[in-house]
Amino acid sequence: xxxxxxxxxxxxxxxxxxxxxxxxxxxxxxxxxxxxxxxxxxxxxxxxxxxxxxxxxxxxxxxxxxxxxxxxxxxxxxxxxxxxxxxxxxxxxxxxxxxxxxxxxxxxxxxxxxxxxxxxxxxxxxxxxxxxxxxxxxxxxxxxxxxxxxxxxxxxxxxxxxxxxxxxxxxxxxxxxxxxxxxxxxxxxxxxxxxxxxxxxxxxxxxxxxxxxxxxxxxxxxxxxxxxxxxxxxx
Length: 235
Known about the structure:
Number of strands: 22
Shape: elongated
Low-confidence stretches: 97-109, 127-134
Mean pLDDT: 79
Radius of gyration: 21 Å
Strand content: 35-45%
Distance between the termini: 34 Å
Structural class: mainly beta
């Protein structure tokens, strides 16, 4: 599990495990990580953690947020990064930072060359044959949990309308950097969408989401940065 080590003037004050998908940092006691100092805004920054990765976003703070001495608005945290808030420092430690998943993709912004034309649903004959009553008794024992169906999104408007993108990666980031970004995570229990960047949150079926992960259902309509897309399960 990733964590932040809070220090000031080289003295470690405490360690904070990133146990929630979204944790706020600021001066107010309502924050998940409270730093009671006048140089820190009431709600200064937020850390969004999806699986083994974390994103840092400055929440329009008065004095800004630095990572490795560079001002940021949004930053993908890497193991060893040092977040600076006034005199305080938060060192990001990702315990599984080097265990990269080959099915993991850190960023995927909607671009024409990443989308493929809508294709017909793959033939169902192999699955149908495997499900036949005659062959079922002869098959090997079937695990109690069925594998997660592959999800996909189809673009409904704009220049890429009609094109689709399979969500085969563990983590797929969609949207327009600097405007609105959301992450779709592929988990054993299904697909979930989480807001990452932007003042405006994504909408699903016309309802604006909050900061928590939202489970996606077959044929949900998502709107991110003015682009509408339909989520569906294949096969």
